[in-house]
Write a structure and sequence with these properties.
Strand order of the largest sheet: 1-3-2
Shape: elongated
Order of helices and strands: EHHEEH
Number of strands: 3
Largest sheet: 3 strands, antiparallel
Strand content: 5-15%
Radius of gyration: 19 Å
Oligomer: single chain
Number of helices: 3
């Protein structure tokens, strides 16, 4: 049997990230939060949500979002 000169692709490694550490996009936020797209956009533009802005996109993790919600329970947010 002849040995291939092309390396075989590595098997994918198991992710060490759990669901709470998964990176969420703006579309993910729209699917998770019970607000319309425009309200989420207003919250993002007013820097109310705990996100990182990369160009025109926003990202966060589920655990950061969950911690932020717990911290602000009972608060009223104005933007």
């Amino acid at each position: 049997m002849q040995k291939s000169i092309y390396p075989l692709p590595k098997e994918p490694e198991q992710s060490t990230l759990n669901v709470h550490d998964r990176i969420l996009s703006q579309k993910d936020l729209q699917a998770i939060l019970p607000f319309k797209r425009t309200k989420i956009q207003q919250l993002l533009n007013s820097n109310q949500l705990p996100v990182l802005k990369v160009g025109k996109d926003y990202i966060t993790t589920f655990s950061i979002l969950e911690d932020w919600i717990q911290k602000h329970l009972g608060d009223e947010i104005y933007y």
